[in-house]
Each structure stands twice: as structure tokens, then as C-alpha cells.
Amino acid sequence: MKKLTIEYPLTTKSPNIVWGMISTAEGMQKWLADKVTSDGEYLTFTWGHPWTDRDTKTSQVLERSKHSHIRMKWDYQEEDPMAFWELRIERSELTGNLNLLITNYADADDIEDLRGIWDDNLDRLHRVSGL
């Protein structure tokens, strides 16, 4: 597994707004998947619509620290203890604005595809929230 880290500058100084978009099923559904549901410990992500091919994946919430980060692990990556994905809020010392740091793991052959997926997700985050 190879680690991918992406830093995305945001246009806000409010951690409340960002936290709502990265830590709740409702917020994530706006930019990460077509449908996101939560039972507290697990988040279920669905891409596609009922009348099309759908892909559903479940992620266990490993750690959640309000206004800081949420760390999760996909159910299909249980065999690798280091394979988690994390959304972290950090403040830029230069601008005072917030940055979203994304950490994810994938096979070396899949890293560029994964970067493209995150780039698309971050574009969608910006369009729906202005962040």
C-alpha cells in the first residue's frame, strides 16, 4: 500500500462549516457520494442511482476529533492495519484560512486514479459549499 496525501486550501476560516461537511453523513453526501448513511460507528457510501449500476462501500469510523479530523477504514481494507483514510482540518499560518488534508492509501498502481477521484471530490465540495 502506498500513502497519498493531498492538501486542499479552503476559502473559509470557520471550522464549524468544514466540520459539518467532512464529519456527517449529510455533509459527505453533498460531495463524496450520491448517498451516505451513518449508524454512528459506520458510514455507508453509495455511488450511482437505483436505476443504474450502484457501488456501495462501508467505512468504520476509527477516530473523530471535533473540528480536527475524522479517520476511517474501508471494510475491504481490514487486512492492512495502516490502510485508513482521513479528512483533517488545519489552519494555514500564512493566510489564516483552513486547509483540508486528505490521507488515503492504495496500491501503487492505483495512486494516480485515487488522486483523480479526490480532485473530482474536492471540485464538487467547492461547487456545493463555496469552500
Written overview of the protein:
With 131 residues, this protein is of the alpha+beta class. Helix content is 25%, strand content 39%. It has helices spanning 15-23, 25-29, 111-129, and strands at residues 2-9, 35-38, 42-47, 55-65, 69-74, 85-91, 98-106. It has a 7-stranded antiparallel sheet with strand order 1-7-6-5-4-3-2. The protein is globular, with a radius of gyration of 14 Å. The termini are far apart. The model has no long low-confidence stretch (mean pLDDT 93).
Q: Termini, distance in Å?
A: 30 Å
Number of strands: 7
Largest sheet: 7 strands, antiparallel
Hey, roughly how much beta strand do the residues contain? Answer: 35-45%
String of helices and strands: EHHEEEEEEH
Q: Order of strands side by side in the largest beta sheet?
A: 1-7-6-5-4-3-2
Structural class: alpha+beta
Count of individual helical segments:
3
Radius of gyration: 14 Å
Helical content stands at: 25-40%
Global morphology: globular
Could you name the ranges where pLDDT drops below 50 across 5 or more consecutive residues? none
Let me know the average pLDDT. 93
